[in-house]
Amino acid sequence: MKINGNQITPGMVVQHQDGLWVAVKTNAVKPGKGGAFNQVELKNLIDGRKLNERFRADETVERVRLEQKDFQFLYAEGDSLVFMDTDTYDQITLASDFVGERAAFLQDGMKVTVEMHEETPIGVKLPDQVTLEIVEADPVVKGQTAASSYKPAKLENGLRVMVPPFIASGERIVVDTNEVTYLRRAD
Question: Which of 187, 185, 144, 142 is nearest to 163 (CA)?
């Protein structure tokens, strides 16, 4: 679907310079002299390159709609991750660096959303929160002020997060997968 350059908004995927790009930031500029334009920061979905581009209102660009499919994480095999389509039960294998450092949050049976373009996986969206067990937590230091009382703790997946002093080893906590931060105790 063709759209005008001034209609590009953050999060929109467009086809530009023979590649798929997601708009990260946009800024509508109306200079005192000359026509208005949209200053857009683009990120390549395939290789991660960034690009700053100006799109005038009369320029058109091809908007790409990504298909979102529900998949279930099955297992990790070496540096590959195996997912299963929850509708067709077809399996796909993706490199673990395709998911990035958030791959540490994947758990057996976890539901994820895979964004596809012409049957090619473009990205994997994990749940925003996961529940993990703490395997190692530093003891509380007496007399520590409340403002800086967070202590480091190691999770069952090997990642480290800062937790409040009342959290002990063996407890289950809810972690934000985007920011890799402690949210609350698990119920």
Answer: 185
Q: What is the pTM of this model?
A: 0.66
Region class of 64: left (phi > 0), else alpha (psi between -120 and 50), else beta: beta
Q: Specify the residue for token string 């100006």.
A: 54
Give rounded-to-5 percent helix, strand, coil for the chain: 10, 55, 40
Output the pLDDT for position 36: 86
What is the rounded distance in angstroms from the CA atom of residue 67 to the CA atom of residue 123?
A: 11
- The Cα 43–Cα 26 span in angstroms is 12
Token digits of residue 179? 């920011």
Q: ∠ at Cα 18 (23, 62), nearest 5°?
A: 55
In tens, the pLDDT along 81-108 reads: 889 998 888 888 888 777 777 788 888 8
What is the three-class DSSP state of 152?
A: strand
